[in-house]
Amino acid sequence: MKKKHLSFSEIMAFDQKYRATFINSLGGFKSICLIGTKSNAGLSNLAIFSSIIHIGANPPLMAFIVRPDSAERHTLENILETNFFTLNHVNQAILKNAHQTSARYPREVSEFDAVKLSEEYNNNFFAPFVKESFVQMGLQFREKIDLKINGTIMIIGEIKQVIILESCLGGDGFVDLELAGTLTCSGLDSYHSTTQIGRLTYAKPSTWPTEVLY
Amino acid sequence: MKKKHLSFSEIMAFDQKYRATFINSLGGFKSICLIGTKSNAGLSNLAIFSSIIHIGANPPLMAFIVRPDSAERHTLENILETNFFTLNHVNQAILKNAHQTSARYPREVSEFDAVKLSEEYNNNFFAPFVKESFVQMGLQFREKIDLKINGTIMIIGEIKQVIILESCLGGDGFVDLELAGTLTCSGLDSYHSTTQIGRLTYAKPSTWPTEVLY
User: Fold this and answer.
1) I need a surface site. Which of A75, B171, B172, B184 has the fewest CB within 10 A?
2) Is residue B121 within 8 angstroms of chain A, CB to CB?
3) Judging by DSSP bridges, how do beta strands B3-7 and A152-165 pair with one another?
4) What is the C-alpha to C-alpha distance for residues B156 and B176, in angstroms, rounded to an integer?
């Protein structure tokens, strides 16, 4: 199969939109979540993000990247104002609704209303969850890191509560995301469902991994 | 469908291994890449990472998270010593080989040899690529960010060259990762192939997204 080589100068010479599509594809399949927030004035906001990353389990920390000049800035403003946000996995039934949150709605419009998703409040948590999601997390803001290299911002939050489909939680703590219908994305706009190949045994120098059923 | 609620104190009371498995699952589907490096002394290293994240397209930047006390530390040492690394997507033919790189091999062992993957050098780039991968990137180290919150480290690199299957590159810059056989993972050890649902149109407040073929 023929491989194509692209140099730095060839990549930089791409049209801006072409390059954005290209580079966004190269990162591989990405986690997508709807981030739910609310301003102190009570206006809710919902936005789709594909830059969610696991930072650690003790304490449980997740992070995401924000581009401050984009439709994502309302999310950032609400988190810095109130300290709370939710992460909600996207399944096929709500895919188009989720994608539609990336439209540039005015500040006074709640995307929950605009894209027809249900705002849900659990256990007195300040930020709104997406009722139609089967994996929901409530997080408290912990740290903002300015990435001076390109003006983006990383937000780190601590998981304060989790709501998941009971049937998804395995005996060893593994959450079956396929059972929850969680989707993944590639590039800027391509969405994918998954098929599990298997879980592999913990790697040791002296053995070769095999598939395991827990 | 019944949902289960887990509070922060319940999560923190989990057994450590159970919590690691649980929290690692919650981030959703993750990008997996083999990171190839080489020391100045000429010893190559290869390690699987599931914390790859897109930082920006202009310039093209990618980042990943390293846990310095793990098998990943040789990767970190080589990058800080030499400034170069490669990211190589994982396909099903090399999945077990890729997973096996996470075993704690001694410093003097090259994982390329130990897991039977082919070290490839392209266009005088210092760091080794994985020949069996169909999406390969060569990166130059740009920034190290210490996440004091839990002692992990974020490494940001700039994409200096890309080698991909020619047939994967679409007319608008989109890279068809399914054609390249790129896999995704969830949790610590679960690997998945994907099936494209579709690409959705750019979201605008006045319209509803539809699927498009580019």
Assistant:
1) B171
2) no
3) antiparallel
4) 24
